[in-house]
Amino acid sequence: MDTPLLVTVCIVSLLLALNLYISYLVVKSDFYEPAQKYAQYALIWLLPVIGAIACYLFVQPTLGASTKHAAYDYDDAAFVSAEDGYAGPQHHD
Q1: Cα–Cα distance measured from residue 52 to residue 59, given in angstroms and rounded to the nearest whole number
Q2: How far apart are CA 77 and CA 89, in angstroms?
Q3: CA–CA separation, 24 and 32 (whole Å)
Q4: Which one-letter DSSP state was computed for residue 64?
Q5: CA gap 93, 88 in Å, rounded
Q6: What is 14-38 written as a DSSP string?
Q7: pLDDT of residue 91
């Protein structure tokens, strides 16, 4: 095998591996809706280097995050009934 062909095969293999890895991260992320994931797949595979890096930057902070978590933990909140209004944090000494 001549050198230019070997270099080309290595570069294409690395790009394929990068796209597959980033696609895997998008699949594993629970943060995005299916439509958002499809848009990210298109970005990854239609713009191989730029798309993969952009999607990695978007997916990386969301790994381990879930849409199932609440934005506010109501169990720890200090709410009272609507008639009484908000009582503020309850500190019992």
Answers
A1: 10
A2: 7
A3: 13
A4: T
A5: 15
A6: HHHHHHHHHHHHHHH-BSS-HHHHH
A7: 58
Nearest to 30 by CA among 60, 56, 62: 62
Distances in Å between the alpha carbon of 69 and those of 66, 72, 73? 6, 9, 9
**Cα distance between residue 21 and residue 91, in whole Å:** 49
Digit-coded pLDDT (tens) for 68-84: 444 444 444 454 445 55
SS3 66: strand
What is the C-alpha separation between 43 and 35, in angstroms, rounded? 13
Q: Give the helix/strand (H/E) hosting 43.
A: helix 34-46
- Digit-coded pLDDT (tens) for 30-69: 888 999 999 999 999 998 888 888 888 888 888 766 544 4
Return d(Cα 52, Cα 46) in angstroms, integer: 9
Residue with structure tokens 């952009």? 54
Distance CA 59, CA 37 (A): 10
